[in-house]
Amino acid sequence: MESCQDNVHSEKPLNLLESAIMDWTAVFVRLWMHDINNFTRANDLSFGQMNLMLHIHYRGPCEVSGVSELMQMTPAGASQMVERLVQQGLVTRKEVPGDRRVRLVQLTDQGDRMVLACIQAHRRWVKDLADSLEPDQRESAATLLARMTEIACQMSLL
Q1: What would the pLDDT profile of 114-135 be if each residue is shown by its tens digit?
Q2: From the centroid of its chain, how far is CA 38?
């Protein structure tokens, strides 16, 4: 199998593990993006809206003022995105008790169901992939992926 990195120019060639990680990342991202894009199109959402909802699902409510930084968009654009999600009944804006200037964006029950349905669509191919491995391969893969995830979570996002 040709590596997805074969056409990438770098100062130093990748070793076998680095190449395998790059290949896995490319395939995983392509499949995840495909799942999200199909789901968002089918549910009349933008990729950015679904991304924000996934962020809130995994990280909890976020400040309205932080949405623009999170989504790398202007404050006006972020405010419009949040407003569209509010109008669709997928998120709410709540004042923080004790500081009326701060408003948090949080998922509604409908928004949470939408996110869970998106995640479920993604889990189908993950399950198929896991089921294609032999039991001993599943255990080894789970152990290695858990360790690599632990290390990656500690890495800085500079």
Answers
A1: 999 999 988 888 999 999 999 9
A2: 14
Q: In CATH, what number is assigned to the domain containing residue 24?
A: 1.10.10.10
User: By residue range, what is the domain housing residue 60?
Assistant: 16-153
Of 52, 44, 54, 5, nearest to 27 by C-alpha is: 5
Domain count, the chain: 1
Measuring CA to CA, which residue among 124, 122, 114 is closest to residue 35? 122
Distance between CA atoms of 33 and 39, rounded to whole angstroms? 10
| Entry pTM | 0.76
Cα 30 to Cα 74: distance, rounded to the nearest angstrom: 27
Identify the CA nearest to 79 among candidates 55, 100, 52, 58: 52
In a domain, 95, yes or no: yes
